[in-house]
Design brief:
Two copies of one chain form a homodimer.
Chain A lengths: L2 H23 L5 E6 L4 E9 L4 E14 L2 H7 L5 E13 L6 E11 L4 E10 L5 H16 L5 H12 L1 E2 L4 E2 L4 E7 L7 H24 L8 H21 L1 H8 L4 H4 L6 E3 L11 H9 L7
Antiparallel strand pairs in A: 1-2, 2-3, 3-4, 4-5, 5-6, 6-9, 7-8
Chain lengths: ~300, ~300
């Protein structure tokens, strides 16, 4: 399985996910924005806006290559002359605060030295945490992981807990999920099987999100709940711009800004020192974000 | 002039600025939030919300001290055991898009080794750039600088151009201003005079902002202009969270998050790949942001 085949499958995956999400949304369609990278390669950024379910979202595909830059060498400790990278990245912001924000990424990286690896992750950021839904989400992820390696879920769940954390807020970004990187040289799984794992995560994405969205999308919404949604989106912006290593590396290394920042919501709010009143569902959500939870 | 005297003057400066801004606003008053720092010192964060002119803003004072942490040693290359820092920081977000966002900071830093310096800056971020107003702003700053050292304005103006730049957008944050750091051991100015320079910048702040605000605060506003304001506020958020060294260092070194992030607007918007139509005042503003301008 060579890099061209993986890139072609990533592009297929992007289209599969967009079709699935258009069915889930039921109203809006994705627009496609093709772009080229001066140093080699390019991508197709697909975005959706003002759907029935989704207010703003993106499903980006890219396959880029070229010389390993100084930033890559220093920040990623890459030992090679040229690289190839391809993947699919998703962030979706729904209208209804009773539907979670979701993020997914699967990626493949290869150096001219022959070294390669897979990486990825999926995590859920509910505006209001409902423990049963968090359990369901983690069950789905564990089920996918367990088809490949029983160690994947516990290892990658804990990795997500470390990664999706906002130190300056002492909050997790949401209810976590799975995160993995440098996945290669597996004792029993071939390169094809490792890619199949990434692919299955991606292929499962529309159903996983549909299941989460269905439970909240028709719930009535108050002005106070919309305000809370926008404050939580503010936290999402903070994580992405201050903490997310992928975003920071992308912006620093001259990645395509609009594709990287398609992860930001249409609207975000900030209030100085906002504290929800005790006993409210907002306070309950905050308390569940104060530390990673073992949902299963 | 010792650190206690400088800290006391900084606190006075904060109160002077807040009184001035309350007069300019004409409706809202600042609330004061006192806080203590576990390792030593604390501050008074003053915020204003939903005024006649100002939608959201803060004027923060702090005086903190304690051991030089590893983060400080590595990031700031500080050579000392204990430090003392005091200063005033301001960010104001007006309602009306025809009034600029403004930022100011003056600070004093001292190590137990006896080394000390002053730092600071003031810069203006119009949602719509009006060249005459930009010129006026820079004239005011040059006039203050020239009372101390004729080299200050050109040097500090150029420093601001470097500092207030958003590389991933290839845009300046606004029309610049002045920025300086490690100001000490001046050939002709004493420590008292260097502090007097910082103080005069601060004392001039309410008048400088009043003059800028007066020209735009009563202009009628369309929905499209509000949308543009909120997109520009999105850029302001990007600069503060991705690029601003003060914010990044503050969050990383365990500074008080709510005081640091009082700089964020009440509302910010993002649109994928938004481009204003050619010939509009939005496009004109963008073109003036594409590189630092010599306003004088």
């Amino acid at each position: 399985m060579n890099k061209e085949q993986i890139a072609a499958s990533m592009r297929e995956l992007q289209l599969f996910i967009c079709e699935g999400l258009e069915r889930v949304d039921g109203k809006a369609r994705f627009s496609e924005d093709p772009w080229n990278r001066e140093e080699g390669g390019g991508g197709f950024t697909r975005t959706i806006r003002n759907g029935d379910l989704l207010e703003k979202g993106g499903v980006a595909y890219s396959a880029v290559h070229g010389p390993v830059s100084d930033v890559m060498r220093n920040q990623l400790q890459l030992d090679g002359n040229t690289f190839f990278a391809t993947g699919v990245s998703i962030v979706l912001h729904p209208h209804n605060p009773h539907v979670p924000i979701i993020h997914m990424n699967v990626r493949y990286f290869e150096l001219d030295s022959g070294v390669y690896w897979f990486g990825g992750g999926i995590d859920l950021t509910p505006h209001y945490i409902i423990p049963e839904q968090a359990v369901l989400f983690h069950e789905r992820l564990k089920n996918i992981c367990d088809q490949f390696d029983a160690d994947f879920y516990p290892k990658f769940k804990s990795w997500a807990d470390d990664y999706f954390y906002i130190p300056h807020r002492k909050e997790t970004r949401g209810i976590g999920g799975v995160f993995f990187d440098h996945l290669n040289n597996h004792p029993t799984l071939s390169k094809e099987e490792l890619f199949r794992f990434c692919q299955l995560l991606g292929q499962s994405f529309p159903d996983i999100y549909a299941e989460q969205a269905e439970k909240g999308r028709h719930k009535p919404v108050s002005q106070a709940e919309l305000e809370w949604r926008d404050l939580r989106r503010g936290r999402y912006v903070e994580f992405n711009l201050v903490n997310d290593r992928g975003t920071k590396f992308g912006l620093l290394s001259g990645g395509r800004t609009e594709s990287i920042l398609m992860s930001l919501p249409a609207v975000a709010h900030w209030e100085y020192n906002y504290q929800p009143a005790e006993g409210t569902s907002e306070a309950e959500t905050l308390s569940l974000l104060s530390a990673p939870q073992n949902w299963l």
